[in-house]
Amino acid sequence: MDSPKPKMGKRAYQLFFSTLANETRLTLINILRQKPLNVTQICEVANLEQSLVSHHLKMLEHHGMVFKKKEGKFRYYTVNEKTIKPLLESIDAHMKEYCCKILAGKR
Amino acid sequence: MDSPKPKMGKRAYQLFFSTLANETRLTLINILRQKPLNVTQICEVANLEQSLVSHHLKMLEHHGMVFKKKEGKFRYYTVNEKTIKPLLESIDAHMKEYCCKILAGKR
DNA sequence: TAAATATATGAAACTTATTTCATATGAAAA
DNA sequence: TTTTCATATGAAATAAGTTTCATATATTTA
């Protein structure tokens, strides 16, 4: 007996996807996938303003997609590999088939 | 040698996530997960206005997440199980750990 | 302890997405 | 062949999300 109904509320999914549905946040995630960095470093690498980066990191952290570690006056952020890796793999698989079609219409 | 860099452009991911980052579209996907339905039927089940549903189905189809099949004057929509199933599984796994935290702050 | 550095945050300005409404198109039924 | 039913679509109205700016807080260094 397989249940086609979702186990979590729609709202939870919606928040999850919304968190990733933003180019700035995806940039941050990809930067952090290489290695942990503090806010200032992230700003440099991403070439983005500090307050913008902080706002987005906060959201990512709040949704469990990155972790924050205090170190003196610095805050080091790391990506939640456990979530992000399999997720991006699922999506890559989908993209392989539909990416062109998707990107064609937009911009 | 494992590449931590993504294979697809950020933009593609962003579009992918945006497509799912909407409660109405998630509703439609969940309805279609049970079985294919035409637009009128979807409207009834979801209790949503026809034009709203059509707008969203169009986007879902455009992004390869549902398929459309003509049948007389009806248009039957089916969910792309191949994409949606593993995707939602990844997310459920993440949710199991972070859902409470996430939902606590919002609403 | 005053100045400097790192990060966070609230709110306004701005941008993008969603919904609604009116109407168009296309197929089938009368 | 007109009417009805099913679906689609453009555009205005509305809502939600993002960025910026000014400033607050916290930690170190001088």
Please state the CA-atom Rg of chain A, rounded to the nearest Å. 16 Å
Protein chains sharing the most extensive interface: A-B, 46 and 47 residues
CATH architecture of the domain at 10-80 in chain A: Orthogonal Bundle
Any idea what the CATH superfamily of the domain at 10-80 in chain A is called? Answer: Winged helix-like DNA-binding domain superfamily/Winged helix DNA-binding domain
> How many helices of chain A does DSSP assign?
5
Helix content of chain A: 55-70%
Number of strands of chain A: 3
How would you spell out the order of helices and strands of chain A? HHEHHEEH
Assess the beta-strand content of chain A as a share of residues: 5-15%
Report on the biggest sheet of chain A: 3 strands, antiparallel
In the predicted model, the low-confidence regions of chain A spanning at least 5 consecutive residues are 1-6
In the CATH scheme, the class of the domain at 10-80 in chain A would be Mainly Alpha
